[in-house]
Amino acid sequence: MKTVKAQIVLCAVGAHIFGVKVVANILTVVHTETVRLDPDKLSDLYTELGERGAEDVVCRAIEELAVRLTHCERLWRHKDVTNLRKSARSLIAISDQIGMTAMSNIARDVTLAIDAEDQPAVAATLFRLIRVGERSLTAIWDQHDLSI
After folding, report:
1. Tally of CB atoms within 10 A around 115
2. Model pLDDT, residue 42
3. C-alpha–C-alpha distance, residues 72 and 82, integer Å
4. pLDDT in tens, 125-137
């Protein structure tokens, strides 16, 4: 995580309503996370299924992960925690299959936060999952030079 230049903002509304000069320091935080792909998992997949079979599995997994990440966000916004947990659990198995270790671990953290009924933790870990998921999908897509 790195912080970007702080900005000073004068709040005219606060000055008008309360008769004081309100100044706030606003920091913009940019989240950067290392994407971890397990090359051994992918290598095993290619050894077991051959190039064509492994490429097929990887392509289908990428597509399914993208759909389920979007579905997780939608479920969270609709406060459907039961189905969010099911969807996050499915992300663990799929991402493990193709060597997306970080994504699998974070999806596991989402389910643990749901089990603990810790809504702030659910929100934080879910949106971390979405950030890492998007980056992981891009990384594996680029690594295998897959095309649509």
Report:
1. 11
2. 83
3. 11
4. 999 999 999 888 8
The three state secondary structure string of 79-140 is CCHHHHHHHHHHHHHHHHHCCEHHHHHHHHHHHHHHHCCCHHHHHHHHHHHHHHHHHHHHHH
* Residue 138: predicted pLDDT: 80
Closest CA to 88 of 110, 119, 113: 110
pLDDT attached to residue 41:
87
Residue with tokens 């389920």: 68
* Domains of the chain by start residue, with CATH: 1-30 (no CATH), 39-143 (1.20.120)
* pLDDT tens track for 36-76: 677 888 889 899 999 999 989 988 999 999 999 999 999 99
